[in-house]
Amino acid sequence: MRTLLVGLAIAFVAHPALSQQQGPDTAVSSASAAPAGSIFWGDYRRGWHFYEDPEPEVTPPQKLPPRAKEAIAESRPPELVEFARLQKRLEDYRNIAIIRPTEANVRRYMELEASVVRQASYFSEVAQRVAWSTPELDMTLQGRPVNARGIEVFDREQAQSRNQSLAALARTHVLFFFFRSDCPYCHAFAPTLEAFQARHGIQIVPISVDGGGLPNFPQYRRDNGISRTLQVTQVPAVFLAEPFTGKITPIGFGVLSESQLIERIATVTAPGADALVPSVTRQVSLK
Predict the structure, then answer these.
(1) Distance, CA of 258 to CA of 27 (rounded, Å)
(2) What is the pLDDT of residues 181-193, one digit of tens each?
């Protein structure tokens, strides 16, 4: 044992660098002496064996040279350049007047705004004259007129056209009327459907959901499951059906007026109407 201790002492004396005590101060001074970009000395506790994804390099946006900006501005129509400048100047004058509302600042903004309003008014007058001389651009000629006499003629023409369409429709279509005998709304709606059938000739097919009848439709059909197929969850309900093809389209639920029936039937039978809401039209075998 004594021989081992003597050997260690000799080795310690032979290597004087090992005799220097390395405490916390020495580690800190060593770390401070390391290069500024050294990863290990910045966080030496993590050791050497670690891997991290490099930070993504951010490419600064390329700035266009002044000549390129001028070339882009020159490629635009001069009217657009002038309009952009006018907008910018109007906004600047307004902001200045808001932050510093002196008489001069407010007057300058109001004068420019009045000039812009006059320009817009002149544009409106020119647009009106162009519309008057070009029928396809005059919105008062598209759809429903705007004056009383024109509205009267328009409504009369619309009624005649729809009556003719219903007369032609009555040869190939029927209206399914789903009801319950204890439903007060069904009782209130039944006279309207009865009059509609007499006036326009389209057949009403009453279908009782609960097996009972109505005074206006003593001859009715019992529900054979078609209400479940058409997902009738509320009565009264009206569907337009084409028996030859099995095509059935909902018209509406609840109490409807005769004008509503005419308008909705015209809407669902218009060309291309099925493409608007294709999921509501069903193909059902009516045999």
Answers:
(1) 97
(2) 999 999 999 999 9
Which pairing describes strands 237-242 and 174-179: parallel, antiparallel, or unpaired?
antiparallel
Q: Which domains does the chain have, with CATH numbers?
A: 66-127 (no CATH), 161-271 (3.40.30.10)
Amino acid at 126: V
Determine the straight-line distance between the first and last CA of the chain, rounded to whole angstroms: 114
Give the pLDDT score at 160.
84
Summarize pLDDT for 110-156 with one digit per residue, the tens: 999 999 999 999 999 999 999 999 988 888 888 788 888 888 888 88
Q: Are 211 and 222 in contact (CB under 8 A)?
A: yes
Bridge partners (DSSP) listed for residue 204: 175
Exposure of 223 by Cβ count < 10 A (0-12 exposed, 13-18 middle, 19+ buried)?
A: middle
Q: Are 192 and 256 in contact (CB under 8 A)?
A: yes
Can you give the pTM of this predicted structure? 0.56
